[in-house]
Amino acid sequence: MTQEIITLVQRTYEIVNKVNRNPKEEISQIIQKLQKGERLSLIEAGIAFANDTEELDQILFWQARKVKEEIYGKRIVLFAPLYLSNICINNCSYCSFRRENKELSRVRLSLEEAVDEAKAIREMGHTRILLVMGEEPEDKTLSYLEEIIPAIYSEVDIRRINVNIAPLTLKGYERLKKLKIGTYQLFQESYNPEVYREVHLDGPKTNFLWRLNAVERAIEAGIDDIGIGALFGLGDPLFELLGVIAHADYLKKKFGIGPHTVSVPRLKPALNSVFSNDYKISDHKFKKIVALLRIMLPYTGIILSTREPQHLRDELVELGVSQMSAASRTGPGEYRGKKGEEERQQFLLSDHRSLAEIVEVLIDKGFLPSFCTACYRKRRTGKTFMGLADRGQIKDFCTPDALFSFVEYLYEIRDKHPELYKKGNGYLLQVVKDLPNFENIGRAIEYILKGEKDVFI
C-alpha cells in the first residue's frame, strides 16, 4: 500500500524540521556527496532544500546540470496540451474547473472540434500532445476518449498522445491501455493528507488514497509510462518535494520502473478560485526543487509548463528540465477558437511565446529542440527505458532522434520562418560534427531536408 509513502514522508519531514537551519556538518557532508556524484538520502535532500547557502546552492545547480547532460544530453522535448473539456464533478478550491464555479463557460469538444484542435497544434510543428479534461464518471470519460484518440491518430500527424485524466479502476486503465496512449499523467496535487483534505472540498477527488494508489493500478493494467507530480504552493513545498521523491522511489522498487516524467506545476491564479492559503515559493526555491528532482531522479523527464514566466523557464532548462510545453492554451477550443478566454481556462498562463520563439531561444542557449516520439513506438518504455536511462545510454537514442525530429520541424517552417530555418541549419552543423557515425546521420538529415518524414532509430 502506498500509505507507506506518506508515513515515510511524514517521518522524514519531522526529522528535517528538527535539524537547525544551516547545520554546518550536515551541509558539508551533502556538498561532498554532490561533488562525488553520490545520491542523497531523503533526509539529506530535505536539508539541502531547507538551507540556502551560496556554496551548497552552487554545487547543487552544477550537479543538476551535469546529471541532465549525462542522461539526456542537450535535448529538450516540446509538446502542447489539448484541453478537451472543462466540465468537472469535483470542487477543488484552487481550480477554475471546480463544479461550483458558475462563472466558467463549460465546454466539451465534439469529435470534429477535438480533431481540429489537434490539427492546429500540428500546424505549429508539434507532434506530441497531452490530452487534459475535468473529471466525469469513468465510463463516460473512456467512451469519449475511445472516439477522440483513434480519430486524432488517424486524421492528424500526431505521433504520441499522452493523457492526463482522473483516476480509473483497473478495468478502466485496461481500456485506456488499448487506445495506444503514451504517458499517463496523474498528479497527487498534495502528498500531505491534511492539506489534501482542506483543498478538495467535494467530489470523488476527496479520496486521497484512491488517487495515490491510482498509478499502481495503471502499471498493473500494463501502462508502463507513468507521470506524477505535485502542485507546488498548496502546502509546504518541502513536504511535497519529499513526497514526489518517495513516491518515485516506491514505484521503482515495487515495479522496477520509476515515473517516466515528473511535473513541477506551481500554483497560479485561476478564475473564481476560493483557495487563499498559497505557500509562496520563491523562484530560488523553485529552482532548487527542479535541481533536487533531477539529482534524486536522474532517469525521469522533468516537465515544465507555461505557468512559469519566460525568463524563469529559460533558466530552468539549465537546471534539469528536459520537457516543456510551448504555445499552450488551457481552455477547450482555444487553438482554433478565440485565444485567451479566461472564462474557459484552468489557470492563467505566464509564457505567451510562440513555438518558433521558444525554439529559437533553445538554439541560442545551445539546446536541441526535440519533437521525438521514437521511444514509445520502438517500445523503449517501462523497464527498457529505465535500464537505458540508469546506465546513461538513453541519450545515444535521444540525441540522433531528437536531431531528426528537429530537422523535420525546420523543413516544415522553412517558408514561414526563413530566419529561424537558417539559424537552425547552422546549429545542426555544430551538433552533427560532434556525433559519432556523423556520416550516416548527415545522410539521414539530407533526406529529411528533401521532405522525408518521421525518421528515427
UniProtKB/TrEMBL annotation:
The GO biological-process annotations, alphabetized, read as:
sulfur compound biosynthetic process; water-soluble vitamin biosynthetic process
Q: Does the keyword Iron-sulfur apply?
A: yes
Pfam families with a match to the protein in the record? BATS, Radical_SAM
The coenzyme or cofactor needed here is: [4Fe-4S] cluster
Write out the GO MF terms.
4 iron, 4 sulfur cluster binding; catalytic activity; metal ion binding
- Which segment of the chain is annotated as a signal peptide? none
Record flagged with keyword DNA repair: no
* Binding site residues for S-adenosyl-L-methionine: 94, 133, 189, 205, 211, 268, 346
Q: Which keywords, in A-to-Z order, does the entry hold?
A: 4Fe-4S, Iron, Iron-sulfur, Metal-binding, S-adenosyl-L-methionine
Q: Where is the Radical SAM core domain?
A: 74-307
Residues involved in [4Fe-4S] cluster binding: 95
InterPro entries attached to this UniProt entry: Aldolase_TIM, BATS_dom, FeFe-hyd_mat_HydG, rSAM, rSAM_sf, ThiH/NoCL/HydG-like
Cross-referenced PANTHER family: 2-IMINOACETATE SYNTHASE, THIAZOLE BIOSYNTHESIS PROTEIN
Q: Which NCBIfam families does its entry note?
A: rSAM_HydG
Name by which UniProt lists this protein = Putative thiazole biosynthesis protein ThiH
Organism of provenance:
Carboxydothermus hydrogenoformans (strain ATCC BAA-161 / DSM 6008 / Z-2901)
